[in-house]
Amino acid sequence: MLQIDNFINGEFVAASTGRRFEKRSPVDSQPIASIAEASEADVDRAVAAARSALEGEWGQMSTAKRVDILHAVADEITRRFDDFVAAEMADTGQPHHVMTHAFIPRGAANFKVFADIVKNVPTEAFQMDTPDGEGAINYALRVPKGVIGVISPWNAPFLLMTWKVGPALACGNTVVVKPSEETPLTAALLGEVMNSAGVPKGVYNVVNGFGPDSAGEFVTRHQGVDAITFTGETRTGSTIMKAASEGIRDVSFEMGGKNAGIIFADCDFDKTIDGIFRSAFLNTGQVCLGTERVYVERPIFDRFVAALKVKAEGVKFGRPTEVGVNYGPLISHEHRDKVLSYYAKAVAEGATVVTGGGVPDMPSELAQGAWVQPTIWTDLPESAAVVQEEIFGPCCHICPFDTEAEVIQLANASDYGLSTTIWTENLARAHRVAAKVNVGITWVNSWFLRDLRTAFGGSKQSGIGREGGVHSLEFYTEMRNVCIKL
Ligand code: NAD
Ligand code: 6OD
Fold this sequence. Notes:
The chain is α/β, with parallel strands linked by helices. Helices cover 40% and strands 22% of the residues.
């Protein structure tokens, strides 16, 4: 079994209390790692190390050198690509090709892209008239915000953690990361990478543990943490916001979604089926940007439901490295209980179960894993729990619509506003509808196609703020204006 320790001031260290917890494989429930559970004193040490790095070598370093070091981090991630793939597969149980084609390459990109942005983006300057006619000039300095608390989830652990650590370090901050208790492996591996790439001690720290009354709460309450960037459930965001209010500390939140797929009758049918299949079932539906509400224009409704059913019934369950496997387990039994409770609610509320709805028959060596069937429902009212609440599982409800105005109203009838996909061959309609759907990201005829220079985030209860491109600089730096009278 792997021994995973906290990473503080450039060293792997056990918890001061000696406490550890166990991580089990979602595939078969076998124990895979023993993890040091950080105490409040450990979090204190991590924050102190981050502060001292900020005031020391890292804080004094030229931007050019910092950028070079972050490129070295990206190169080292690429060199150890297979280790990251293996670690993330062990943690999440998701198929090999999802790791190699989607999630792990983003780790390196998250460092490179933000290092280059920081190197190239100018600050602002204004010439100003003054009563004496001689004028003044204003310019802004960008300074790091300080020690950043990074709280990350389990569904795409490495992608989501580096999406915050990359820009935070590029801007000259230091970090204390609290990865999800479900997925500690890649954050630890990144500690080794930081040391190999020459990142000074204390710049990147990892404290493991849980949320309330554990490492998550210790980090977010800590007054030595200057700002908190969080990805996870909306309910957790609300708790963290209260903690951040002590000391008036800034937050950036990327949270839940209940995303709509909008399918017009003039879509490219086969591409749309493939796209909705991916957006509903990739990563076993555990993607915040995934589609759990599907609205299909009535003339193609029956054909669409039948075709998506065939795709859902064609998934291949199995171990992540098995050839042809394209569908993994849920992250844990606890999460499976939640998803299955929604499967039961859908039936209780009168759904037609088009496919799935339960636990698949698995071979005996996988029977203890957290497996669930991909599930499709129809015939529910919009008020049903599975149409309103984020399930974060491999399931969707499909509902017919008749007009553009109606589907816009349906898509917007949610407390969340993270993403949407629109499927049509009519470009004018795509632009029209995209402008009216109240979400942070709309994809037309695609899904999860990411340009890291764009603003990423959610509206309504899906988030606060935007990260990505120069928008990350807005959170991870502060602007100091200098006014010079000429
Ligand atoms: P979660 O909120 O349960 O946990 C996220 C992290 O917060 C974990 O590290 C957890 O230990 C920590 N945490 C929990 N309670 C805490 C507390 N009181 N104080 C401090 N830290 C605490 O979320 P999850 O189950 O890990 O992830 C799934 C959720 O994340 C879904 O809602 C999904 O939509 C959302 N998500 C959003 C995005 C996005 O970009 N908007 C991306 C991925 C996931
Ligand atoms: O692509 C990203 O930058 C990002 N934050 C993706 C979020 C995926 C949610 O599961």
